[in-house]
Amino acid sequence: MTEDRKPSPSRWKTDALLAVGAALVVLAVNAATGFRTLSDYRGDNDSLLRLVQIRDLIAGQGWFDLTQYRMGLEDGFAMHWSRLVDAPIAAIILVASLVTGSAVIAETTALILWPMLMFAAAVYFLVRIARMFGGESAVLPAVAIGGSALHFIGNFSPGGIDHHNVQLTACLACLCYLMAAPGNMRAALLSGACAAIMLAVGMETAPYVATVGICAAALFLFVGQEERQAAKGFGWGFAAVAALAFVLTIPASAFGQTQCDAFSLAHFVLAGIAGTGLATIASADAFCATR
User: Fold this and answer.
1) Residue 1 pLDDT level (bands cut at 50, 70, 90)
2) Where is average pLDDT lowest: 122-136, 152-166, 217-231?
3) What is the rounded distance in angstroms from the CA atom of residue 157 to the CA atom of residue 169?
4) Which of 20, 28, 34, 260 is the 20 to 30 A CA-CA neighbour of 276?
5) Do residues 57 and 157 lie in contact, with contact meaning Cβ atoms separated by under 8 Å?
6) Would you tell me how many other CB atoms lie within 10 Å of the CB of residue 62?
7) Are 53 and 86 in contact (CB under 8 A)?
């Protein structure tokens, strides 16, 4: 990556304004059609069930209790979805409730605002990546083509509050920060943190997280010394946020349990070993001296 294609502090505001503008355009398009996806979820049962889970959390269901008592047999069943997605949406609903005094308006606000925030963030990271790859000339195509693609896949439509838009946005953020990581420890840490968030939110992202981790390690091993800080920061960020997510989302009574489709002990241990292992190797002067 050439120096002029690294993210510039003087340009991030421009990129953010472009992303917000793209989100406002999408918002206007949905408003012009009467926010149809709020009444017709087009088979998006995940978002509907996520809303039920958030309602239960606001109504007093325990943070670590992910049981859906309305579904399945008499005692319901435990969901595998992360509270990391529930929390910000619930916060929007609570704040909007205080402002408007209406639970219905508050929920509607969250159902529109949350996907738009994720959309704006996703476009922002797309633009940053495009700027690093292709320079200034790649920015507007990234906004137009990338924004259109994100809009038409449907995960960012009003009412889309399942975890897929969060995972996609975190993936773009992870890639963006990894590209900016050489010589930038903060970006390296953020890249590792985003990778850990992807994993904690849903196990379907495990192949993507593994691929990004391999890229961070391979860049250090085969590119040069400037990637040393990037690998070290990515490793520490990944391990630290994975540990934090484990403590915040898994009850102490379930620390020893292993799940196949939810963040659990096995995934936390693997993340810890991989992250601290990469960071330790990248920090070892003896190892680097042999390269």
Assistant:
1) very low
2) 217-231
3) 14
4) 260
5) no
6) 10
7) yes
**Which stretches does DSSP call E strand in 140-234?**
none
The one-letter amino acid at 148: S
Token pair, residue 79, equals 């969901």
Structure tokens at 126: 């797309």
Q: Tell me the whole-structure pTM to 2 decimals.
A: 0.89
Q: What pLDDT, on the 0 to 100 scale, is given for residue 288? A: 58
Alpha-carbon gap, residue 110 to 94, rounded angstroms: 9
Q: What is the mean pLDDT of residues 81-94?
A: 94
Which three-class secondary structure state does DSSP give residue 1? coil
Contact (Cβ atoms closer than 8 angstroms) between residue 163 and residue 44: no
Q: The tokens of 23 are what?
A: 């989100």
AA identity, residue 90 = A
Burial class (CB in 10 A: 0-12, 13-18, 19+), 48: middle
Coil, helix or strand at residue 77: strand
Instruction: Check residue 43 and give its pLDDT.
Output: 65
pLDDT 10s digits, 173-182 = 999 999 988 8
Show the CA angle centred on residue 40, arms to residues 37 and 42, nearest 5°. Answer: 90
C-alpha to C-alpha distance for 261 and 275, rounded to whole angstroms: 21
- Beta carbons of 190 and 237 less than 8 angstroms apart: yes
Residue 96, classed as helix, strand or coil, is helix
Q: Quick: pLDDT tens for 230-278.
A: 899 999 999 999 999 999 988 888 787 777 677 888 888 889 999 999 9
Structure-token pair, residue 21: 């503008």
Burial of 225 (0-12, 13-18, 19+ CB in 10 A): exposed
